[in-house]
Amino acid sequence: MKILCLNLEQDRERTMISSSPFLISFFLLVSVPVLFVLAPRIMPPKTLPSIPDRDEMDDLALFRRATLASAGGSGGGGLRRRAASPPKIAFMFLTNSDLTFAPLWERFFHGHERLFNVYVHADPSSHLQLPPTPSFRGRFIPAKATQRGSPTLISAARRLLAAALLDDPANAFFALISQHCIPLHSFRFTYHAVLADPGAPPAAHGDGVRRRHRSFIEILAGEPGLMDRYVARGDDVMLPEVSFDQFRVGSQFFILARRHAVLVVRDRRLWKKFKMPCLKSREDSCYPEEHYFPTLLEMQDPEGCSHYTLTRVNWTNSVGGHPHTYRPPEISGDLIKELRKSNSTYSYLFARKFSPDTLDPLLKLADSVIFQD
């Protein structure tokens, strides 16, 4: 009897051992689909780099100072100073490499020192060389690292706006300029074109009506691929602050009136959405700097904006989200005149994108074509 029981036990063990590979295979076969279903819910999706907390805290402190200093639109007690000097344009250069076109811009600025200020945000990793031109010296603001396809480019533009608001209450307009951008007209033409704008509908102020200047910023709706851009951070992430029908796209570069510059640095509500990093899987649709400013201004003051940009960009044969880059053989007087043409009542005032080796041919055209308008 004992022998019989022992044999039965041994048979059972042999059966379990022989069936274990089958059980393991069956378990793996069943678990793999389950993992595919549950993994996205258990593991957070991969995202592009976000803004470091330290940078965000530094920016918030800067933006609070700029907002308080600009309370009432007077620059914080600077109303008399502003009235004593003519309105100025703040030219804000955003760069991650050398300011190759500084000599051309220097000719543009020459003789108009009382009508402009220059501010430069240079990515700390760029090891930017100081341009040998007086208008750019000492005009570098404290900067943080920037990265394409991330909200850091929005932060850099807001940093420039805050610095310009704090620096001079006479700054009436704020022009964001690319490192690859050139002027298409003389300073005098540019200055009068911006300040002579008929403006937005007048607003009641105190005992009278005050004329309001417009901001020149591209604001577009219904563009192809807009939904892909809207959900770049996640399907419902932008809600409830920004619904899809409120979401806009436009050029990264603009000219803002002072009240809109204050509005941008004061904003917290939309920023908490746009500062969120895009999903790695939707990287191709991530262009935060082209969405934040048009969406914010469309929601806050659509009638106070032109809805078109004054910076000409050629998107023909664009590569990897970058516009056409002009090379030396393309530089001519006819090109400059062609780039000035626009579909609005205004001529384009600036143009991009130009390769660094176009500086010399552009300088040769500066006095005879570019600044002869």
UniProtKB/TrEMBL annotation:
Alphabetical keyword list: Glycoprotein, Glycosyltransferase, Membrane, Transferase, Transmembrane, Transmembrane helix
UniProt-listed Pfam families: Branch
Major localization class: membrane
Residue ranges that the Swiss-Prot or TrEMBL entry lists as coiled coil: none
Mode of membrane association: Single-pass type II membrane protein
Subcellular location: Membrane
Keyword Ion transport (UniProt): no
PANTHER family in the cross-refs: CORE-2/I-BRANCHING BETA-1,6-N-ACETYLGLUCOSAMINYLTRANSFERASE FAMILY PROTEIN-RELATED, CORE-2_I-BRANCHING BETA-1,6-N-ACETYLGLUCOSAMINYLTRANSFERASE FAMILY PROTEIN
Name the record gives this protein: Glycosyltransferase
